[in-house]
Amino acid sequence: MPVDLRAMQCFLAVAAAGSISRAAETLHIAQPALSLQIRHLEEALGVTLFMRSHKGVEPTVAGQRFEIHARDILKRLDIACEDVRDLMVDPEGSVAIGLPQSMAKILTVPIVREVIRRWPKVRLQVIELSTGYIPGHLLSGHIDIGLTFRAHANSGLQFDQIVDEDLVLVGPPGQFANGHTQAQPLADTVRLRDLNQYPMILPAGEHGLRALLDGYLRTQGVDLQILAEVNAIPELIALASAGVGCTVLSYASVCAEVRKGQLSAARICQPAVSRPVYLCRSATMPLSIAASAVLDLLTETVRTVLDDGSWPARIGEVAD
């Protein structure tokens, strides 16, 4: 018996709901009809897709594998339909972008504003994610485009470096001398090996920024005084501003607060500490017309905010 698209849609609805009755309500079909769809699908595949219990249903190992393939097949079908339905002149469809906190702060407003203005039929979703989760969301099809700080080889994803960001030591107002112009906003520098003189509040070890900083510190043989670990950038900024401890963040994350006198910051030197920013997407699944348009807009917006100083960073090595 062949497996049809309706059966895959029913399967995914049950997997998402964890219950055949709840999935039936979502799909607006009778529960016995949905149960029959799942049974026929299991017979066609020759495997059990769900474990049943009084609490509901849960995908088996085979069901988990089939869920990945079913999502991929239906996503590709959506892209194919969009490709033949609309041209670039009037793209239509859903597009999801995954952005880290610091970049969501800079890019969300101009991107959302332009998508609404240019392409009213595009349903844009901007999802704020820790960068460690972005590759997984791309591979599962939950987002179409992402920005992250690491390139993962042989991951099924395409990574293009677009920006280099400087990391800075951040403290309360007045701890470090700030410059007087937008072009030269930081007057103080701190050597990397001297970071151990400052009580620190940093993201936890698995956080992308912390992993990058730890790599620099290992090369210098430096151990830090870490008071606490906090992953959220707004809370790190608030703690530094209150003088609870210093932290290390990208200058883009704190430039507005530094210019307003709510924080002070110093450049890290000998060596300077920077992080690359990568634009990433699936290496195997083609983007829809709508997602391609948003990808071009994202690249255009990055160049604009770099040029006008809204994002104080440098164009990456392979941005062209």
* Integer tally of domains: 3
Q: In the CATH scheme, what's the topology name of the largest domain?
A: D-Maltodextrin-Binding Protein, domain 2
Measured as a percent range, the helix fraction is 40-55%
CATH homologous superfamily assignment of the largest domain? Periplasmic binding protein-like II
CATH architectural grouping of the largest domain: 3-Layer(aba) Sandwich
Characterization of the model:
The protein has 320 residues and is an alpha/beta fold. The protein has three domains: 5-83, Arc Repressor Mutant, subunit A, CATH 1.10.10; 88-162 and 277-315, D-Maltodextrin-Binding Protein, domain 2, CATH 3.40.190.10; 164-275, D-Maltodextrin-Binding Protein, domain 2 (3-Layer(aba) Sandwich), CATH 3.40.190. The protein is built from ten helices and 13 strands. It has helices spanning 5-17, 20-27, 31-45, 61-85, 101-118, 134-140, 208-220, 233-241, 251-259, 289-307, and strands at residues 50-53, 56-59, 93-99, 122-128, 145-148, 157-171, 189-191, 199-202, 225-229, 247-250, 264-269, 274-282, 314-315. Strands 3, 4, 5, 6, 7, 10, 11, 12 and 13 form a nine-stranded mixed sheet that branches. A two-stranded antiparallel ribbon has the order 1-2. Strand 8, helix 7 and strand 9 (225-229) form a beta-alpha-beta unit. It starts with a helix and ends in a 5-residue tail after the last strand. This is Transcriptional regulator, LysR-family. One of its GO terms (biological process) is regulation of DNA-templated transcription initiation. Belongs to the LysR transcriptional regulatory family.
